[in-house]
Amino acid sequence: VQLQASGGGLVQAGGSLRLSCAASGRDFSINAMGWYRQTPGNQRELVATITSGGTTVYADSVKGRFTISRDNAENTVYLRMNSLKPEDTAVYYCYAEIGAYYSGRFYRRGDYWGQGTQVTVSS
Fold this sequence. Notes:
four-stranded antiparallel beta sheet, mainly beta
């Protein structure tokens, strides 16, 4: 399974960006998907996650500004980022919880990560 992220770039404070991340491969199912971000010298931190059923969780720092969504048919997760601030500058990584469903239960294989996409917000 591979995850391909796209959509990062340079934007002025107050602007918007949309990140996308598509999972591809054979014979897999996805439970949760989401985004983390990392700045130099710091640990990767959660930005937002979304389950296969659509339940979302956001970091306090992005609530009300970022929106996570997914297209289950396309195995794709999106992150719409509005009202961007310089402190949102980071490399953004998508992830997907990969496994398989048997008899209605999800058996987790592991978390797979995308390659990271740079988001830079200028002041």
